[in-house]
Every structure is written in C-alpha cells, then in structure tokens.
Amino acid sequence: MMFCMRITLLGTGTSHGIPVPGCSCPVCLSEKKENNRYRCSLWIRDEKSSVLIDTAPEFRLQAVRAGISSLDGVLITHDHADHLHGIDDLRSFSWKKSIPVAAQNTVCRVIKERFPYIFSPPAQKGGGLPQLELRSLENKEKIRFGTLEFQPIPVMHGKLPVYGYRCGSFAYVTDCSAIPEASLSLLRDLDVLVLGALRFKPHRTHFSIPEALEIIKKISPKRAYLTHICHDVEHFRLKDDLPKGIEPAWDGLEIAVP
Asked: What's this model's pTM, rounded to 2 decimal places?
C-alpha cells in the first residue's frame, strides 16, 4: 500500500491512564492490551520527517515501544499534565541538535514557568537537559517540520482554548468539548480523524462518545478513531457498538494516511 504518512497512537487514555491506580473495575483488571492505555501522545512521520504531538508522562516508555529514533519537531495541544509532563524525555532526542516545540502563546509561557531549568538552566552542570526551542503559534499560523506541515485547529476544552492539529488529510483533536464553526471548516475532506471521546456519560470538558459521534457525522471523514478513553469504557464492547468506519483507538495503533 502506498502512503505518504504513518501515524502511531502512542497513548490513548485519559488523565489517569488505564489501569487507574487502586481501581479494581473490570477494565482496569483486563488482561487485553487494548484496555491498557497510557496517557495521550501521537507520532506522525513520512519518509523524511518525524513529529510528536504531546509529551505524555509515559513518553519515554512510548518512544521505546514504538521505536522512535529521531524527532524533527513537537506540537503541544495544551498544558495539562497528562499531555505535557513527559517533556524532559525529549533530551534523548536533542543531544545533536535542538528540537522546536510549538504551541499556542499561553502554553509556551506555562512551559517556561513549569520547567524553568530547561530554559534558564542552573549554573551547576550535570544530569543533562533537553535542548528545546519554543515557538508560539497563532490560530491561523501553519508550521512546518521538515516535509510535514501542520495547521492548528482551535477548539474548546471546557472553557479552555486548546489546539488540535491537521496534517494533510489527517487531523488529531483530543481534549475537546466544542468545535467552533470556523474550526469545523478546517476539518473538511479528511481521510482520517482521531477525536477524543471520554465516556458515554456527559462531561463538562470532554466530548462524550455520543457527542463525538455527532461531530464525526458532521465532519464526515473517511475513517475515524476515538481516543482519550477512560476506564468506564471497555474497548471491545465499544467497538461492537460503533458505526462502520469508526473504531476505538488503542495504544500502538498504526494508521497509514495516503
């Protein structure tokens, strides 16, 4: 099969991950790999370039499992811990050259405040630091890492403005509870959409599964995958209930995008 991009879902779980520490529900006790979810990160690459979306707390484990050997850039959707706090593990990829890390202006400020040792290193040497270059993105500003170009997609995570990202005919929108009309227009003509869908019950800051299905129907991609799934949802039961062309994502899922 010919394709120009490969996508790997490095993590597909909500902020607790699955299994949730201390929980004995059937999903957390499941031995099926599809029910074992790290926090959300995504790897996208073509023949020449390699880009990461979000640095989940398990990023080191995700990178080893997926076989990531280099990164040309990193995109951050927002500054919540489950999407950001693996940022220190970028140091393994930045020994030879610094890595550009792009996010909206407010997120760049938070990253500097939360990880000051990276951007204002202490006088004492040792331990190693990630060599990163922060780049602020405005809503309509595209960014290119090597051969891959990304369009920020402004969406709402409760009351918090966050970004999804589109690259070619692929789009990734994780923590989200509303998509403005202007952003819906940026999500037309997709081959693949990966969209956050936390659980069946409504939530203040995330799409429920029924809400995500309505959005997918409106956008009408050729294929769609649900991510950022919590332990209320068993993978295979959800898969059996979904319409044709829509599946629950799982850790390690690889998608070819033409």
From this structure: 0.96
